[in-house]
Amino acid sequence: MRKIAILSDTHGHIDEQILKFCRGCDEIWHAGDVGGLQVIEALQEVAPLRAVYGNIDDQALRRVLPEHLAFEAEELQVFMTHIGALPPRYSKKIKGLLDAHHPQLFVCGHSHILRVIPDPAQKLLYINPGAAGHHGFHNIRTMLHLYLAGGKAQKIEVIELGKRGQLVQD
C-alpha cells in the first residue's frame, strides 16, 4: 500500500508539523499556492514530490512547476491542478481537462476548504486537502494522507496541523 501526503496552499510556509506528517510517505502531492522554492526544497528532502503551481505563485515557481499534472499512481489515473471548482460545477477548461485525462482521482486546492467528494458523473474522487499554510480565511490548517492499493483509494486520513496563525509546539 502506498501512502501519499496531500497538501495545498502553504503560501510560503513550511514547518516541522507539516514535515512530520510527510515523513514516511511514499510521495508528497502539493496542489499549488506553494509560495516559495524553499517549500519545494524542504518537501523534496522528505519524499518524492509532485506539485503544480497556483495563482499566487511567482515566475520562479512557474518555471519549475506545471499548471496541471496528469500521472498514474498505483494503477489510478490522477489529475492535479490548483483551481478546480467543486463537482459538478467545473469550469469549461477543467471539464475539458477531466474529459481528456479521465482521472479516477482529481486533486486541487485554492478554496482552503478540505473536501473529499465522490463525483459519479465524472467517475472520480475529488480531493481538496484544505490549506496547510497560515494565509487565508480558514480556521484550521489541514492536509491529508491517502492510502492507495490495488487500483483503489483504500483510506483517507485528515490531518489537523493547528489553528491558522498559531505555531504548534511538539
From TrEMBL:
Which family is this sequence assigned to? Answer: Belongs to the metallophosphoesterase superfamily. YfcE family.
From the Swiss-Prot or TrEMBL record, give the protein name: Phosphoesterase
InterPro entries in alphabetical order: Calcineurin-like_PHP_lpxH, Metallo-depent_PP-like, Phosphodiesterase_MJ0936/Vps29
Cofactors that this protein relies on: a divalent metal cation
Q: Does the keyword Endoplasmic reticulum apply?
A: no
What's its EC?
Answer: 3.1.4.-
Organism name = Thermonema lapsum
Outline the extent of the Calcineurin-like phosphoesterase domain. Answer: 3-146
A GO MF label: metal ion binding
Which keywords, in A-to-Z order, does the entry hold? Metal-binding
